[in-house]
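Sequence, structure tokens reproduced for absentees:
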Amino acid sequence: MNSSSNRNLAIILLFAITLFISASLMFIVQPMFGKSLLPLLGGSPAVWNTCMVFYQTILFLGYLYAHYITTYIKQHRQIQIHAAVIIISFLALPLAIPGNTIPPTDSNPTLWLMWVLLLAIGLPFFVVSTTSTLLQKWFSSIGHHTSDDPYYLYAASNSGSLLALLSYPFLIEPNIGLTTQKILWSGGYVLLCLLILSCGVLLWRSQQKQLDKKPKLKINNLTLYTKIHWGLLAFVPSSLLLGLTNFISTDIASVPLLWIIPLTLFLLSFVLVFSSWADKIHPLMVNFQPIILLPFIAYSFINPALLPYWLDLLLHLTAFFLAIMVCHGELAKYRPSTTHLTTFYLIMSFAGMLGGMFNTFIAPFIFQGVYEYPIMIVAALLLRPGVLTTKSFEIKTVKSLGLQALFPALLLIAGLSIYNLVDNFPNYLDSIGGALILLAGLTYSFRKQAITLALLTGTLLFFSIGLHNSLSHKLYQQRSFFGVFSVREAMLMDENNQPEKYHELFHGTTKHGAQRLALNLQRIPLTYYSRPGPMGQLFKEYDKINDNWVIGSVGLGAGALACYVKPQQNWTFYEIDPLVIRIARNTNYFHYLSLCAKNSTMIVGDARLSLNNEPDKKFDLLILDAFSSDSVPIHLLTQEAIKLYFAKLKPNGILAFHITNRHLEIKKVMANHAQQLKLAAIIQEFKPQNPAPLVVATDWVVIAKKAEFLAPLSKSRLGNWQKLPLYFNMKPWTDDFTNILAIWK
């Protein structure tokens, strides 16, 4: 090409716009299909992580395909092959979940979820996944004056990803239903394919004669150590992303849309490190990382109770962003020439996929808690500049390594001695915690010695986690697809002002039930189900007519509701997680089921799918008490779900809905449903008047077809039942449309 055409801005715009649209479609389809699949799996946060692993896997396969055809096939043939792949992918349009899709109830649904995603969006997502690498490689051969360094196009691609990711919850989801979203995405995909083919035509028409020649295989002068370094720099941030997402949604706050913040920062890091400002930004990130590390360790791990959750969250996000900026900055700094462009991206995607697989498939089986997160914090510190280099994979000498590890090793030995030798260990926790905070201050002194910094940080994190496990008196902790469950022993002051032990069940940081241990108190339902509370009032008011009720309860927890069972009643519990059933039935922890509901039926699986199989007009009372940590699964709140519940209720049946939530005003959704479906609904936002052990504030909505069926409650003097207020400008929640932002407190 001549010099003017070499500087043609239109060429850059065509490739940049194509990459931008491709990345946008990729990060719209991810939350869109994740939201479509959530109802099948109880709204578990693990659904997002499993979807992320699927996307990373297809991304790797797309990069592998792009690497192969651009390395071994001449360019005209590349265009023909890719055009054929695009045409085949149209078979998957319009996007939809395969019919008769039912998840397994007796095994981990991870592989099932991956298979459903493959059938539904595998082909189009594969094409989208190839675009970034393939088009950058094509651009490097187009003859433009910037073709020798096309990595800046990667920043354009990630800008599209970032914009799409942020637009979904704030623009797309609140205004467009899922069905319309899928149709619009399919239209955008067709446009993308046309743009890709336009880029191919431009390459085809290029005047470079070597385009028609099969490229010679170039000698690979990349060392194994260089490839390993690239892989580590991609693996750790990927694992850290999923680890942080899981950690903050279980250990800090189960806030809807919270998962989007770490992913946004992850994409932003790629935009920055591949931008023209990267050389100035990278040293700043390296210098800031140890500064933030000090308060991060001191307040987010050693003593998180001092901070409000939003400030704790901010510290975690800041430390995460600095860690991935350092890793991705090193990755961008050591990027190769265009000769090895596809190899570079292939290794990045492969390592990213491995990071996701580690968190999704390996960590849940080897860790009882979300321990992969602190492990990757330490690993990120080991990847700071000065430990590994791509030139020779230099590692400090054994002598130097030993000296750097000496202080953390002594600290570790001292700590283990304290654990084993001090008899009344809990009394020393405050002083030990203070000492650990002081030691956290030493981390900054080792900012230029990455190995010592990492080992010291790892030692401090180890002790911090140990301290909190000791303080929480955990009797049991286990992790399933649906989260981390723990049983803890705690103390309360009884009615005689005497200390008394009790057991409590936690999902993440949210209490899901408790039971007093004294034999005469084990049948008393507590926390959200207490006798003074809304559920106690309901059963007491209907006491004379509920002897033969058929009752369904969605969500088991510790099983406290079972102690409202009467001998003639027929109770069925619906619980999605078999682990919860095992905990509730284990008499080492809780006795509600064994004492009160030996003959109740237990059905494992998602509530809507299970209820759909029940005969119509079966129940007199249906109790909805399903939670994932602090959040009610959204698919149980839609208009279609309410219609299903009333189809299964008798004409005079009652629906009781637990809506206690720290972040969302679910009563707005329920009020809208009552108005739209012409139902009678009352609410009680219960606050204990006379403090009693383990009687807590809780919100319940009770709904029936006619107000007369709720008269015993609404006229009751036991509690302050009120008619649900009306909320105008509230669009009904359906399986096709929900808007979390509209009910944010």
